[in-house]
# Entry
Amino acid sequence: AASSAASSAASSAAAALEFCRASPDAVVVTVWPTAHAASGAVRAWLSDDCGARILHESEVAIPKRGAVATCMALYFGEDWVHTNCWYSESPLPEGPPKGPYAGAKWKAALTFSGSLDAPLTVFVVDTADTGGGLWHRKYGFRESLRRAVGGLGNSCIHLTDDQSTALCAAGGAAQGGSSGGYACDSSYAFHCARVLLDDSSVAFLGAADADLATYAGRFDAYAAWLSKPPVDGESTPAPFF
# Structure
């Protein structure tokens, strides 16, 4: 029974990855560990309030030591993970992080808060019939979640951006962008699905400690894999161990 369940989960994840690779209507919605208790509310919001069709749902276990790497991966190519230029929107009680990856450390502190290693909850949804409702309604819903869980700032959910234009430009494989500066609108479904639904990616993130001297080189190798589109839709395991 356990092996059958594992096989079914793997098939669901593979189908979700393929949908994200090919569909302009694909969106990945991630509930951060800070808001794990509100995953049911997110599910209801997606299907009942927004009319999205949930194609895949899974919990992804990444311990807190991998929080910085996870934020750097999901927001890959966005300069703020290094500059921390959005810090003033949600200051931390202990003050701004120091050293490299300051923005990612700030985001990790917001999104992986709490005493337990709660998982991330990942939804892959089809937004074809939503009329853009997810993006129009996300700010109010995000704030209601923050109040419900007692979080700071934007600490509860991550929604990928409209990937229709990027999908066409990339010839059928939307990748994470590199908008630079203050931009935070290039986080696409296929990119984020690879981060959170590829087993080798999750294994790397779970073991990636940003405080270790070897981290920069290992993350660079991971980023090179993440930047390379799969060949014929087949992604090779990430070669960074």
Notes: Confidence is low (pLDDT under 50) at residues 177-186. The chain is about 45% helix and 10% strand. The CA atoms of residues 170 and 229 lie 9 Å apart. The beta strands are 26-31, 53-60, 120-126, 157-159.
